[in-house]
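Tokens for chain A. Residues wanted.
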């Protein structure tokens, strides 16, 4: 059985003075910091502005992280849709301020950083431009773990000489790893396929925080026995298991783990780095990171955090969602379900929708509940409960059932497939093989407001909000969209301070009515 071994100095001998100069561990666990991407995407609706990252970037660069995830996921969408920022500017600026730290992004395979499959010419162009603005490591995943949706991105990344990390979405059909689909053999098989496709490392991407400590140990141990490339664990604190699972993964020999600075950690984010650093003192897996530097960066985060407090979910006392252990629905998906039901004045149907979500997921071939499959399954579950089972089927669900998102982990229920597709035959090829090139068409359509290929890609991925942003960027339309203002966008610290002063006046009875 693997275990964390004693280092060259005992923890009890590490005085405050000796901690800073402690010997380097033989096999230090590497840290990917998610503070600037998944940390705030998971806790603050991806609303942190680039200027606040720039303010503390030089200090983050001193931390000694293996890498920092700063881009991808929802950042491309939110930055231009709600923050009025050019999404390409963030990695470009951070690269200059953090030259010693490799920058990492999350790429949704053929979906890139949007919500549909894109043709290969857009994938090639996007990867090339991402490299140009400073991305070094590309974590690539597919929502149904169909490796064919990795192919083009992997080739483009390798062609540019950058690191292709093949990610496998972790999922379950029962409380613990096992069963006919998501068992140990499934994950090993997928990892070997991605390795053979040229993956420089493999990541277990546990987007729902479902991996339990002993399953993490078993899975990482098996992957390390079968792979020569580094293995990384990405999990979320949603169910409350993440710190335990990360520690067991380290015992099993994991090479890299994802964490965030404590202000942006826990809840539905990643484990806090500060705790892990101290826990590993005096072991052969000691991170080597300086707790004082991490604390300094955390305090800097606390200074800017009040701007974003309106995006923090405070609807429950608990900072974890133990319900995820029961219904296996990620926290973000539950939030979306609640929002949909509120709009339809049907919040009393939430329990029924959760049950229907599990049923729809099974009928859809048990896809991992991650963007965009979580949205497809969730919307269909709501429609089934409120309108009747499959009386109304979304365009995306129809495309998914028809093979448009790839091959799901299990067979789609034949009766449901027949109900939705009628006589249409589902495709079995790689979905992007059927897509016509779009780059030249997008250039022509956006020629009045797009000045370079990065502008064109903003438009190609997000035609409506992208065109709106670009028209404003170049002064064609000087109207500031309402989406760029509170409550959709963050407040300033001055606005927060005035708000706090008014609250104090109301509580003390000093605010007089006019």
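Reply:
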């Amino acid at each position: 059985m693997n275990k964390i071994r004693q280092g060259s100095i005992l923890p009890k001998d590490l005085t405050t003075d000796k901690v800073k100069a402690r010997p380097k561990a033989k096999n230090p666990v590497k840290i990917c910091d998610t503070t600037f991407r998944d940390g705030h995407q998971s806790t603050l609706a991806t609303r942190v502005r680039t200027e606040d990252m720039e303010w503390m970037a030089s200090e983050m660069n001193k931390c000694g992280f293996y890498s920092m995830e700063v881009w991808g996921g929802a950042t491309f969408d939110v930055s231009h849709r709600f923050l009025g920022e050019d999404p390409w500017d963030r990695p470009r600026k951070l690269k200059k301020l953090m030259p010693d730290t490799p920058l990492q992004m999350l790429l949704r395979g053929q979906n890139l950083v949007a919500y549909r499959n894109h043709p290969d010419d857009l994938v090639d162009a996007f990867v090339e431009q991402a490299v140009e603005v400073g991305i070094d490591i590309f974590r690539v995943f597919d929502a149904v773990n169909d490796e064919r949706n990795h192919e083009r991105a992997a080739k483009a990344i390798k062609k540019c000489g950058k690191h292709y990390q093949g990610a496998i979405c972790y999922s379950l059909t029962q409380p613990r790893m096992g069963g006919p689909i998501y068992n140990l053999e499934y994950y090993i098989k997928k990892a070997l396929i991605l390795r053979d496709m040229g993956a420089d490392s493999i990541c277990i991407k546990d987007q729902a925080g479902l991996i339990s400590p002993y399953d993490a140990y078993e899975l990482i141990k098996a992957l390390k026995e079968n792979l020569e490339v580094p293995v990384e664990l990405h999990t979320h604190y949603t169910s409350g298991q993440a710190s335990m699972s990360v520690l067991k993964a380290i015992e099993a020999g994991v090479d890299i783990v994802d964490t965030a600075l404590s202000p942006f950690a826990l809840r539905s984010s990643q484990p806090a780095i500060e705790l892990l650093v101290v826990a590993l003192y005096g072991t052969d897996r000691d991170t080597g990171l300086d707790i004082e530097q991490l604390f300094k960066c955390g305090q800097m985060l606390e200074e800017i955090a009040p701007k974003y407090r309106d995006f923090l979910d405070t609807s429950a006392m608990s900072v974890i969602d133990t319900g995820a252990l029961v219904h296996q629905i990620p926290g973000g998906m539950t939030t979306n379900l609640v929002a949909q039901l509120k709009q339809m004045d049907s919040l009393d149907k939430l329990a029924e929708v959760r049950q229907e979500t599990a049923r729809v997921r099974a009928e859809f071939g048990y896809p991992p509940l991650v963007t965009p499959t979580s949205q497809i399954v969730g919307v269909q579950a709501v429609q089934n409960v409120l309108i009747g089972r499959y009386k109304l089927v979304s365009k995306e669900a129809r495309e998914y059932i028809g093979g448009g998102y790839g091959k799901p982990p299990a067979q789609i229920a034949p009766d449901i497939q027949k109900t939705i597709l009628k006589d249409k035959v589902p495709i079995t090829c790689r979905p992007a093989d059927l897509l016509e090139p779009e780059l030249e068409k997008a250039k022509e359509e956006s020629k009045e407001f797009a000045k370079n290929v990065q502008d064109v890609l903003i438009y190609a991925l997000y035609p409506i909000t992208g065109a709106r942003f670009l028209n404003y960027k170049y002064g064609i339309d000087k109207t500031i969209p309402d989406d760029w203002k509170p409550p959709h966008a963050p407040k300033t610290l001055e606005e927060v301070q005035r708000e706090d002063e008014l609250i104090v006046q109301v509580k003390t009875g000093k605010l007089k009515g006019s």
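The first helix runs from residue 16 to 20. The beta strands are 30-33, 67-72, 103-107, 137-140, 163-169, 201-206, 231-235, 256-259.
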